[in-house]
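User: Show me a protein chain along with its predicted structure.
Assistant: Here is one chain, sequence first, then structure tokens.
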Amino acid sequence: MRRGVVMVVVVGVLGVGGCGGGAVAPVASRSAPAVDGAASGIDALFLAMMVAHTGQTLEIVRVGLDRATDPGVRTLIAAIRATETDELATMRRWLREAGPSAAAAATRHDHSGHSDAVAGLTRLRAARAADVDRVLLDVLTRHQRTAAALAHAQVTAGTSERVRDLATRIDRSRTAEIALMADLSPA
């Protein structure tokens, strides 16, 4: 029963987002834990999705740092850049360690189906100077909600302890960022 629930959650997150397409090896169930450090198919898929998602986040943040004016917004997005740059390096390293097929999957992963980052970046770049902070917070909030949802599903479905630990940190971090952005949002 539990495995069925886990798979429904994973399929729900991936299916709604339009992700998938056979990018990585078959998914291992949580009932067969991976050797610590080893990534199962579900772990490699999560890492590939998060590498793509984090790349998009860093692009949003880069544009935001070029355009944002509010000091609180600038401080938050600088912190996001530092955190996610480190996480990206870790995830890429783990994918390389998982083998050539997992690392290749990360470079082939089309993340556009479960992220509106492209449209958000277009909105952010086109925003009038007076609207940039508001648009940035809206775009980044939506984007970080997706990251938190992906990470939350991985905590339940993952087999690698270190990948699940990273997913837990991502879920908590993005959820906290969303709350901070709500506090920073202009009226």
